[in-house]
């Protein structure tokens, strides 16, 4: 049996996982329901470099990147529509300043269905908890999310209102559902 992928945190933007993460990001978000087209340099600037300064975790199998996930304190998110929208929701009752935003999550198609997405989510929940962030928020497609179940099983609750992204990033998925819930102590 093959060993499971190794999970590790990126510490600086010069890490050799850079190209693997960028290529995988473009591939997974080109799939349904998002059908996004991304420029490699934009992904490097806005995802890789940005999250390498906050929280970026990768899963590797024999040095090949097979998964990634990003995290950032909600109030530090440079896209101000995200903390503004969340803080205005009547059914969001956590403290924004103690909330982590669970940003991108992707697993290569060949590695799916084996629990890797869940491991990457757990790694981020523990990372956030260690930093005093007691709640998480994430957003996803409202109807065809492949990730919502992972968060639901970890105590996540959907917010009632949808965010309308307009035609951002050429995504075919225009609306986003936010989920929020507790972070977790490492090892729980
Ligand atoms: C979402 C994604 C990261 C899940 O990765 P994964 O490694 O397959 O997830 P896991 O194996 O940990 O599965 C986690 C749970 O989701 C369920 N799940 C996974 N894929 C599913 C699918 N296609 N349809 C329905 N449920 C699915 C699993 O059954 C599991 O539920 P369980 O704990 O009740 O058994 C992966 O499908 C992906 O990269 N998708 C494309 C990018 C994307 O949609 N990212 C999320 C944006 S918000």
Question: Topology, please?
Answer:
Elements: E1 6-9, H1 18-29, H2 40-52, E2 55-61, E3 64-73, H3 81-87, E4 99-107, H4 116-130, E5 135-140, H5 148-152, E6 157-164, E7 175-182
Parallel strand pairs: 4-5
Antiparallel strand pairs: 1-2, 2-3, 3-4, 5-7, 6-7
Helix pairs in contact: 1-2
Bound molecules: coenzyme A.
Task: Give a quick precis of the structure.
By secondary structure, the protein is α+β, with helices and mostly antiparallel strands. It is 28% helix and 28% strand.
Proportion in β-strands: 25-35%
CATH architecture: 3-Layer(aba) Sandwich
Average of pLDDT: 95
User: Structural class, from helix and strand content?
Assistant: alpha+beta
The gross shape turns out to be globular
Query: Helical amount among residues, as a percent range?
Result: 25-40%
Fourth CATH level, the homologous superfamily? Gcn5-related N-acetyltransferase (GNAT)
Structurally, the number of domains stands at 1
Q: What kind of oligomer do you see? A: single chain
Question: How would you sum up this structure, described in words?
Answer:
It is a single chain. By secondary structure, this protein is of the alpha+beta class. The chain has a single domain (6-182), classed as Gcn5-related N-acetyltransferase (GNAT) (Aminopeptidase, 3-Layer(aba) Sandwich), CATH 3.40.630. Helix content is 28%, strand content 28%. Strands 1-2-3-4-5-7-6 form a 7-stranded mixed β-sheet. The longest helix is centred in the middle third of the chain and has 15 residues, at 116-130. The chain starts with 5 loop residues before the first strand and ends in a 6-residue tail after the last strand. The model has no long low-confidence stretch (mean pLDDT 95). Coenzyme A (COA) is lined by residues 28, 31, 105-107, 112-118, 140, 146-147, 149-150, 153.
């Amino acid at each position: 049996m093959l060993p499971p992928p190794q999970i590790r945190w990126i510490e600086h933007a010069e890490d050799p996982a850079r190209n693997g993460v960028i290529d995988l990001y473009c591939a997974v978000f080109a799939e349904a329901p998002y059908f996004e087209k991304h420029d490699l340099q934009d992904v490097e600037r806005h995802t890789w470099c940005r999250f390498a300064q906050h929280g970026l975790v990768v899963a590797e199998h024999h040095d090949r990147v097979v998964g990634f996930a990003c995290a950032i304190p909600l109030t530090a998110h440079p896209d101000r529509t995200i903390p503004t929208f969340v803080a205005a929701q009547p059914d969001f009752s956590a403290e924004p300043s103690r909330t982590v935003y669970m940003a991108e999550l992707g697993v290569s198609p060949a590695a799916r269905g084996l629990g890797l997405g869940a491991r990457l989510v757990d790694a981020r929940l523990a990372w956030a908890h260690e930093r005093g962030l007691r709640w998480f928020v994430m957003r996803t497609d409202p109807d065809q999310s492949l990730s919502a179940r992972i968060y639901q099983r970890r105590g996540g609750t959907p917010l009632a209102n949808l965010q309308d992204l307009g035609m951002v990033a050429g995504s075919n998925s225009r609306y986003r559902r936010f989920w929020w819930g507790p972070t977790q102590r490492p090892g729980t």
